[in-house]
Amino acid sequence: MNPKLPYVLLVGAAGIIFILSCMLLSRGRQSPSCESQPHIVEKTGSTSQSLVFADLTPEEMVEVVQYLQGNLGVQLVDASRAKPSDNCIASVDLQVPAKAEVLQFLDGGGARPPREALAVLYFGNQPDPNVTEYVVGPLPTPVYHRDVTVQKYGGKVPYHRRPMLGSEYEQVGAFLETVVFAAAPTFLKEVFEYDGTNMAFQTTAPHGFRSGDRKSWFIVFQNVSGFFVHPVGLEVLVDHSSLDISRWAVSRVFYNGQYYRDMVQLESAYVQGRINVEKVRKAPQDGDFSSMKPRAPSAALFPLQYEPQGPRYSIRNNHVLFQAWSFAFGMSVNTGLRLFDIRHKGERVAYEISIQEALSVYGSNCPGGMSTRYMDGSFGIGRYTSPLVRGVDCPYSATYVDTHSLSETLSPSKKKASLCIFEQNLGSPLRRHYSNLQSLYYGGLVNSALVVRTIATVGNHDYVWDFIFYQNGAIEGKVQATGYASSSFLHGDGLRYGNRVWEHTLGTIRTHSINYKVDLDVGGMKNSLVAHDMAFEMTRAPWRPEHQIERPRLTKKVLDTEDQAAFRLQSKMPRYVYFAANSKNKWGHQRGYRIQITSFAGDHVPEASSMERAISWARYQLAVTRRKEEEPTSTSIYNQNDPWTPTVAFADFINNETITNEDLVAWITAGFLHIPHSEDIPNTVAVGNSVGFLLRPYNYYDLDPSIYSHDGVFFTSEQDFMACEINPIACLPKTASCLPNFPPFTYDGFQNT
Fold first, then answer.
1. What is the Cα–Cα distance from 168 to 389, expressed in whole angstroms?
2. Which residues pair with 391 in a beta bridge?
3. Phi, psi of 554, rounded to the nearest 5 degrees
4. Quick check: 553 and 382 in contact, CB under 8 A?
5. Which pLDDT value is given to residue 45?
6. Which tens digit of pLDDT belongs to each residue from 581-627?
7. For residues 117-131, average pLDDT
8. Does 318-383+390-412+430-525+571-698 match 166-290 at the fold level?
9. C-alpha distances out from residue 144 to 70, 133, 140, Å
């Protein structure tokens, strides 16, 4: 044995121990924190200009309220406590200036339009009760108001069309508990174990069958978590049309498939044993099967995304910059998230993109379910925008923005973290190619996009609203539906109207229709609408005339009128419909932006229906009209409670006017049919319930603008693809090996609810 061998082995062992110790120490050492890199500073002018679209500040709202209190000559009651016979302020929102004035300011060096508010007031305490809309200005110190109701709607808005205030719901609830239920104590106690607190009510809408009606079915549920899927079989039709609450009355009662004149008749029938009682097991307070509490303990943490060098977008006030994109954002009390002055590479491609309405039409063999047609804008999509939970509703590292509104109160309310903005790596390439023919190379671009999101919880439904900005110049508008399914009590032929999802619960069939306004300005304000599609043509092979070839060819058509540009919901629509500019790209094609709709809508309400005109926008998957200031929205908050005489009927917008070389608006409807099933318990998942639209450049550029993205990756077989200067992805172990600076978790969603 070599006498030096033990020493060699000892030295080697010591070296191995030293290396392992270094590795263990390095693993135990915390990685450095991620540090934000400086960003390109945006032009101050564009930031200040975007304020023309900014939501009202709380201070401005207060000024408007004080002005109205001091200048209308009537007493204004706080809407949160108002009776139907009172005068009150229903809402105060931004009055968006006329487009011509805004463009003169943004593009022509004109004066900034005066900043104004739109106030909606209920006048119940006067000989002719009505709803009046006032424009109040100029802000921040108003000195004038003007009644715009007749100008907007062609006449006064009758009082019965007013959306229900929260106070009216509370008053109906008190009426049910103290007056209606008092008439059937034995029935309620023995069948439902009613104790004055264990019942919840859900209203239906519209409220009747003709103009002037205000009769609402109130569906009774167990008052537990997720009560929407705990019907007990009792429904009450309340006539609350009188402005005198003491004159409210019960018009009809429904229980387990049978109708009764009132609760007195129901009580009498029960006591005499003439009712088929279906007792529902009393649910625990957490709702049992409807509880959203996880049934499994926490385990390994789900994947998180972070920004190793900080956000690559900037937000100042209501203005956002992201790579080649810029836009202003805002929140309407009624319609929710809206965007203005959307530009790509400095050029405006859209003046406005906004949500208009969310409609759901229900079926059931219970009266409340079968008569429900919810128009969520009437309840307030923006008003019911909910605070977002960091890390679930949006990525943890997203930027969270507070929003303010004034609705049904005299004071502004603050929704903390109710809007989020984030850049998202979608986990797939925006484009790529791997070449193993002729030359060997790889080229690709990560699909990283900017997302602007709000989530509105309107009753049982939660709508996740996204506007997404891609690096190739495309914009996506998308809504995902989740929340609880509405339900009816399962009885009789109920399975004709849905699926049984629990012992007594029928998940009722419903359609969802979402309407958007898209005011594209492609290469300028004047555009035309063009349709491209395909058709097969038969031809003889020039080199073998005896053989036939079927080849697709391009079809082209300019859609000259509004009638030609109105595509019915289930009709065949050209697959390429685009707004065409008056300019051409390098290759001689009209520059354009294409509208591509993602939808699997159910059928529209038959046009013979007495209320269909109120939702006539839902007839069309796409309708393009001339833009008019007097047609700012496709519907009205007043349509919900009087759909039989709609305040705004979208069908009237389409009157065969010429739309060639005009300022145009696209009204887009996307939707889906929802037949609830057992997997909708405890509540509905968003997967598969996503619809919307894409706006895509179509010959707008000379080539794909994303080729200029800094995120591109390209290397050949002859290059050192491990070198950072060749392939930045190879440097991620160095450039992205840092710990994200996650802020502490906070949530204010249970404050001031």
1. 30
2. none
3. -85, 135
4. no
5. 41
6. 999 999 999 999 999 999 999 999 999 999 999 999 999 999 999 99
7. 97
8. no
9. 12, 13, 12
* For residues 518-530, average pLDDT: 98
Amino acid at 679: E
Residue 253 class from Cβ within 10 Å (0-12 exposed, 13-18 middle, 19+ buried)? buried
Contact 262, 183 (CB under 8 A): yes
Q: What is the CATH number of domain 318-383+390-412+430-525+571-698?
A: 2.70.98.20
Cβ burial of 498 (10 Å; 0-12, 13-18, 19+) is: buried
Give the integer Cα–Cα distance in Å for 385 and 455. 6
* Residue-level length of the chain: 753
Rounded alpha-carbon distances, angstroms, from residue 335 to 625, 672, 724, 743: 20, 19, 48, 31
Class of 50-159 per CATH? alpha beta
Q: Are strands 347-362 and 510-520 parallel, antiparallel or unpaired?
A: antiparallel
Q: Alpha-carbon distance 126 to 110, whole Å?
A: 43
Region of 602 on the Ramachandran plot (φ > 0 left; ψ -120 to 50 alpha; else beta): beta
Residue whose pair of structure tokens reads 């205000």 in the numeric block: 214
Strands (E), 474-589: 475-483, 487-489, 498-502, 505-508, 510-520, 528-541, 544-559, 566-568, 576-584
Residue of 600, 614, 612, 611 whose CA lies nearest to 648: 614
Q: What is the C-alpha separation between 347 and 336, in angstroms, rounded?
A: 26
Angstrom distance (rounded) from CA 711 to CA 729 = 9
Give the tens place of pLDDT for each residue, 39-71.
543 343 456 899 999 999 999 999 999 999 999
Phi-psi region of 361 (alpha: psi -120 to 50; beta: other; left: phi over 0): beta
In the DSSP assignment, the letter for residue 60 is H
Mean pLDDT, residues 109-123 taken together: 97
CATH topology for the 166-290 domain: Nuclear Transport Factor 2; Chain: A, (3.10.450)
Judged against a pLDDT cut of 50, whether residue 135 lies above it is answered with: yes
**Confidence at residue 61, expressed as pLDDT on a 0 to 100 scale:** 98
Q: Where are the domains of the chain?
A: 50-159, 166-290, 318-383+390-412+430-525+571-698
Q: Which residues of 601-610 are buried (b: 16+ CB within 10 A; e: fewer)?
A: bbebbeeeee
Q: Which residue has the tokens 């201070």?
A: 59
> What does the block give as tokens for 208?
């009747």
One-letter-per-residue 3-state SS of 158-201: EHHHCCCCHHHHHHHHHHHHHHHHHHCHHHHHHHHCCCCCCEEE
275-284, 392-401, 520-529, 732-741 — which is least confidently predicted? Answer: 732-741
